[in-house]
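REVIEWER CHECKLIST
Item 1: Sequence provided? yes
Item 2: Single chain? yes
Item 3: Sequence as submitted:
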Amino acid sequence: MNEQNVLATILAGGKSERMGKDKLFLELNNKPLIQHTLDKVNKYFKKIIVITNQENEFFSKNNLTTVKDCIEGQLGPLVGVLTAMQWAKTNFPQCAWVATFPCDTPFFPEDIIEKFIEESKKKDSLLLTTSSHGRKHNVFGLWSLELYDKLKDDLINNKIRKVQDWTKKHKIKNLEFKFKDYDPFFNINTLDDLELAKKLNIK
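Item 4: Structure as written out by the authors:
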């Protein structure tokens, strides 16, 4: 399954402040953390970019397209979404949607990708987000390019920074996921989180 009008975007523009070092390339199950996300996304999309302000040979060795934030200042994931939309408008003419995935949540279910693709064909909402047991995971999102002008205006002129603050202003369709044994949306922010992830031993 390869969706032709969706740009897959891995958001990796954070400072990794709580980790104390660049977490993208820390190893989990013998491969870099970002690779876990790439392995899933690569199965479904032909067009993939990584939003990052870093330079690393990992990207060139893996023929990855990297894009720096279009607004400087480490302003969070919303700028990453806007950056992906802007890149798509210039480099991916048939693109109608941007699907976003964080770089630090290695266990997320592939169902998300499949449902994003299904929802992109329904066109009954301009914005799709995810949650589990009532907890929002807004960085996992499907964003229509029709939102570009509004998002740009809110970032630049209205200074909105948090994803949740922006998404709640719009009609959102939400995908709810349930889990039993472990939280598939567990994200790795600290070295303790990384050690816990290793103990989970999920492939």
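Item 5: Key structural point noted by reviewer: The chain has seven helices and nine strands.
Item 6: Recommendation: ____
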